[in-house]
Design brief:
Helix content: 25-40%
Strand content: 15-25%
Radius of gyration: 21 Å
Order of helices and strands: HEEEHEEHEHHHEHEHEEHHHEE
Oligomer: single chain
Shape: globular
Mean pLDDT: 88
Number of strands: 12
Distance between the termini: 31 Å
Low-confidence stretches: 1-8, 343-350
Strand order of the largest sheet: 6-7-8-3-9-10-12-11
Length: 350
């Protein structure tokens, strides 16, 4: 009973916190060009297509979905590493889509990104100290002597030996290199960090340690995360809310406990049904929801609901684009069949 009470209290606190990041109807379409000399646009890859959500201060929003669903592109567009085709992105009250490059430089210290590949994202020719200090050099926030002390402080903060200041990336393991990436992201005291599959390339035991580090840093520094991953079990562990993406669209968005206990969208149900359970008896009795067919191309998505070509319950109604709506308190879904009255029964045909 106490655990349930704590969860309820946590949700209430999250609702009371101010919104740090707000994404409104954002699209990112990459043009498809054809022609050897005179190139002409013949289509577009709809990597992100009309996505809306918000992230409260101190919250972790998990973003899950299959490869190619637009998770990473969404994170890059929020940070303006790639410009949105349309829509608006607010950081507090600042509309990032209206800022030019010079104005973005001023706000970038507050928004950082941790990339998936811990080796390719580090310059092999530079020492760890140089890599972590580089953001401070670019922003010109402190002197060289101050930077050295700050770098050593950051190395200790992420669980690395400060005396390894002069070592190079190849001298560290994969997990240690990812900690270097985390230290670099923290160099300018950011408020918001996009974590782009930061544990997918790590061993399972190291994954748990890295996720624990993220949680510790969040509590200590008051960080806000957008945690992108295809690992549902890790997302369930670290997230306050979860967004499920498919073919550039958000299919479902809800508080973590609500989404995993009562998923409303058929696609969410299929993802959750694939997560193994540690209880052998439950695992034997668990009902898997198997999807047929391949994910359609984002350059030529299906008409109406983009999931309709793989949904076992698709009908005539699914030829229309479903409204992304709030069917329960803080529980949003884009499905004609979800009415919020026992969503987990949808796949059972009830």
């Amino acid at each position: 009973m106490k655990k349930m009470s704590d969860n309820t209290q946590s949700k209430k606190q999250n609702r009371e916190k101010k919104i740090l990041v707000r994404v409104e109807q954002v699209k990112k379409h990459f043009p498809v060009m054809r022609g050897m000399i005179w190139q002409k646009q013949v289509g577009a890859v709809k990597a992100v297509d009309n996505v809306s959500f918000d992230i409260s201060q101190g919250e972790t929003l998990g973003v899950v979905g299959e490869s190619g669903c637009g998770k990473s592109t969404t994170g890059r567009v929020i940070l303006q590493l790639q410009r949105a085709s349309s829509g608006r992105i607010f950081f507090e009250d600042i509309d990032l889509t209206e800022l030019d490059d010079k104005e973005l430089i001023k706000i970038r210290p507050r928004m950082q990104m941790i990339f998936q590949d811990s080796y390719d994202s580090l310059n092999p020719r530079h020492s760890v100290g140089h890599i972590i200090a580089e953001p401070m050099v670019i922003q010109g926030v402190m002197s060289i002597s101050q930077m050295r002390g700050r770098v050593m402080e950051l190395l200790e903060l992420v669980g690395l030996n400060p005396n390894h200041f002069s070592r190079f990336p190849h001298e560290f393991s994969g997990g240690q290199r990812q900690r270097i990436n985390i230290a670099r992201a923290l160099a300018l005291n950011p408020d918001f960090i996009v974590c782009d599959e930061p544990i997918s390339a790590l061993d399972v035991s190291i994954q748990a340690q890295t996720v624990n580090l993220f949680e510790h840093l969040q509590k200590q520094l008051g960080l806000t995360y957008m945690f992108i991953s295809h690992d549902l079990s890790m997302v369930q562990h670290i997230s306050d809310r979860v967004a499920v993406m498919y073919l550039g669209k958000v299919m479902e968005l809800a508080d973590r406990d609500d989404l995993f206990s009562d998923p409303l969208h058929p696609y969410t149900q299929s993802l959750i049904s694939a997560v193994p359970t540690p209880d052998p008896k439950q695992e034997r009795n668990r009902r898997r929801v198997m999807l047929e067919g391949e994910v359609p191309s984002p350059a030529n998505p299906p008409r109406g609901c983009v999931f309709s070509t793989r949904c076992p319950l698709a009908g005539d109604l699914c030829g229309k684009i479903p409204e992304y709506r709030e069917v329960q308190a803080r529980h949003f879904v884009a499905c004609h069949l979800a009415d919020g009255k026992g969503g987990s029964k949808i796949m059972n045909g009830e």
